[in-house]
Specification:
Elements lengths: L28 H4 L8 E4 L6 H11 L3 E7 L2 E8 L2 E7 L5 H12 L3 E6 L2 H7 L17 E4 L4 E5 L2 E6 L7 E4 L21 E3 L1 H6 L6 H21 L4 H8 L3 H13 L3 E3 L1
Length: 267
């Protein structure tokens, strides 16, 4: 089954397809403009599904689509691009706060579903936040343009799909050239927002002339070496993940190993 917005094998369509909204009437902009997509995963809940393991799976697969969690009248949606959470919305927040809301709802018993999207649609939606902007939709615009008639998804200046969802004013949600990964908020991943100091052994691990360095490099590879250098340079794990476009769930076990091996300590 193809994801909404995918082009047929024969090439681009002359008629731009009109999609159906998944959550018509939703208040958060992101949820309002999500197109209907049959779920690849549905009915997921604790204790049967580890959400962090699922996110790691999507990251490894480079998956495009959105996650939706609902518990009573509370709900949250998170957009994944290349398997990375890049924007999110809940009843009370957008961005990192909404990502935290989805994780919190899941922990409280919410049911979660995963819906695939074509990469072009996921990219266009990646700029949807808390407000629309006055932007000329010309040239190589990528993003979502909305007016009283409806919404149009653009990829490099070409309309790829429409959605019968409107706003009382004209506005646009420009997509970033390279959507950035959302970081888990401090309340849910405090470890990632703290600085860590290298011990003498940790500093030795960075220098090729020491005996510690070869064993460290063999055990943790370039990912570990780059992470240790970043910590030595004063970056928090969250800052390093953001700068290097890395997933926090890849850094957390490394940090645990660094602490266990006496290479770093929390400040």
């Amino acid at each position: 089954m193809s994801a909404p917005g995918e082009l047929p094998p024969g090439g681009p369509q002359e008629v731009v397809p009109e999609l159906t909204p998944m959550f018509p009437g939703a208040a958060p902009f992101l949820a309002r403009f999500l197109p209907h997509s049959p779920p690849t995963h549905t009915g997921l809940s604790l204790p049967f599904c580890d959400l962090h393991a699922l996110l790691r799976h999507f990251h490894d697969q480079g998956w495009y689509g959105y996650l939706h969690a609902q518990l009573g009248d509370q709900h949250a949606a998170v957009l994944l691009y290349e398997g990375r959470a890049v924007t999110a919305a809940s009843v009370s927040a957008v961005g990192e706060g909404a990502l935290g809301d989805l994780l919190a709802l899941y922990e409280q018993g919410a049911v979660l579903s995963a819906h695939p999207l074509a990469p072009a649609l996921a990219h266009a939606l990646s700029g949807v936040g808390s407000r629309a902007w006055k932007v000329d939709v010309t040239g190589d615009f990528t993003g979502l343009h909305v007016c009283a008639v409806g919404a149009t998804f653009y990829a490099r200046g070409a309309a790829v799909a429409t959605l019968p969802v409107s706003l009382p004013y004209e506005g646009a949600f420009p997509a970033p050239l390279r959507p950035q990964t959302l970081m888990l908020p401090r309340s849910l991943a405090g470890w990632a927002h703290r600085p860590y100091a290298l011990t003498l052994r940790g500093r030795d691990a960075l220098h090729p002339i020491t005996d510690v360095h070869p064993a460290f490099r063999q055990r943790h590879g370039e990912l570990g070496l780059g992470f240790l250098r970043a910590l030595h340079g004063g970056l928090t794990p969250a800052e390093h993940a953001l700068h290097g476009d890395l997933a926090l769930h890849d850094l957390e076990p490394l940090l645990r190993a660094f602490v266990a091996e006496g290479l770093v300590r929390g400040e």
